[in-house]
């Protein structure tokens, strides 16, 4: 599990360095989630997940409130969720999730980012079968035994619980996100270092130094695109041959 947490941690560090861009993406994601159902996280589970993620990235309350208020209005902006799959240098695998109000713009931009950075677009399903949708929670200032006991007492099923770098990481099925969150909430735990519904690779690869540099340019190019919300991959960041 270590490689999985390391990649999530690297992803957060990268995003934390580009806060204005990330805040804009969260604003859109919150708007779309609130627009889909009730603009109330208590009754809208999708919105609740997005808000929990936003909290771990320190998204300002003003941005959250503005997005929810916009969703309550009569705005007629329609966004479509699209997933693209492709390959980076040395056969590395990449999944790109987008929210777009212009499908004709999004696909060419994603394809161009792949082509210009040593990658290529794949067909639907060419990569995603090697990833698992996973709920991930990270807790600081808790022991492994404390968290295990808490989840056992709450009768919540999880895939794994590990301790890495002083953080307790809980991996669960995506449909258990709310059950795990409620178990922690009932125990007075409301702050997480990470609270994500993410795609984790079943196996990770380490790239040679030159290929990793090119791969990181590919990920940066994808994440810079206006319509891209999430990028997942199977490369160990921070390690190279």
From TrEMBL:
Pfam families linked: TACO1_YebC_N, Transcrip_reg
Family annotation (SUPFAM superfamilies): YebC-like
InterPro entries hit by this protein: Integrase-like_N, TACO1_YebC-like_2nd/3rd_dom, TACO1_YebC_N, Transcrip_reg_TACO1-like, Transcrip_reg_TACO1-like_dom3, Transcrip_reg_TACO1_YeeN, YebC-like
Highest taxon of source: Bacteria
Sorted UniProt keywords: Cytoplasm, DNA-binding, Transcription, Transcription regulation
First-listed, main subcellular location of the protein, grouped into a coarse class: cytoplasm
Domain TACO1/YebC-like second and third: 79-235
Subcellular location: Cytoplasm
GO molecular function: DNA binding
Segments forming domain TACO1/YebC-like N-terminal: 3-73
Entry similarity comment: Belongs to the TACO1 family. YeeN subfamily.
PANTHER family attached to this UniProt entry: TRANSLATIONAL ACTIVATOR OF CYTOCHROME C OXIDASE 1
NCBIfam families: PRK00110.1, PRK12378.1, YebC/PmpR family DNA-binding transcriptional regulator
Protein's UniProt name: Probable transcriptional regulatory protein K0U00_07285
């Amino acid at each position: 599990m270590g490689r999985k947490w390391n990649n999530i941690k690297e992803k957060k560090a990268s995003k934390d360095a580009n806060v204005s861009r990330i805040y804009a993406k969260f604003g859109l994601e919150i708007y779309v989630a609130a627009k889909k159902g009730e603009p109330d996280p208590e009754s809208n589970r999708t919105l609740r997940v997005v808000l929990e993620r936003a909290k771990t990235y320190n998204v300002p309350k003003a941005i959250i409130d503005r997005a929810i208020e916009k969703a309550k209005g009569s705005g007629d902006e329609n966004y479509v969720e699209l997933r693209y799959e492709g390959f980076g240098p040395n056969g590395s695998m990449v999944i790109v999730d987008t929210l777009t109000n212009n499908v004709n713009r999004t696909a060419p931009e994603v394809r161009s980012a792949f082509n210009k950075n040593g990658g290529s677009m794949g067909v639907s399903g060419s990569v995603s079968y090697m990833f698992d949708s996973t709920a991930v929670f990270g807790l600081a200032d808790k022991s492994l035994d404390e968290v295990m006991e808490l989840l056992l007492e709450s009768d919540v099923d999880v895939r794994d619980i590990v301790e890495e770098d002083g953080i307790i990481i809980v991996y669960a099925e995506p449909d258990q996100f709310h059950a795990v969150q409620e178990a922690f909430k009932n125990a007075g735990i409301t702050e997480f270092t990470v609270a994500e519904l993410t795609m984790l690779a079943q196996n990770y690869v380490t790239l040679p130094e030159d290929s990793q540099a090119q791969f990181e340019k590919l990920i940066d190019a994808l994440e810079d695109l206006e319509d891209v919300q999430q990028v997942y991959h199977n490369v160990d960041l921070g390690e190279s041959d």
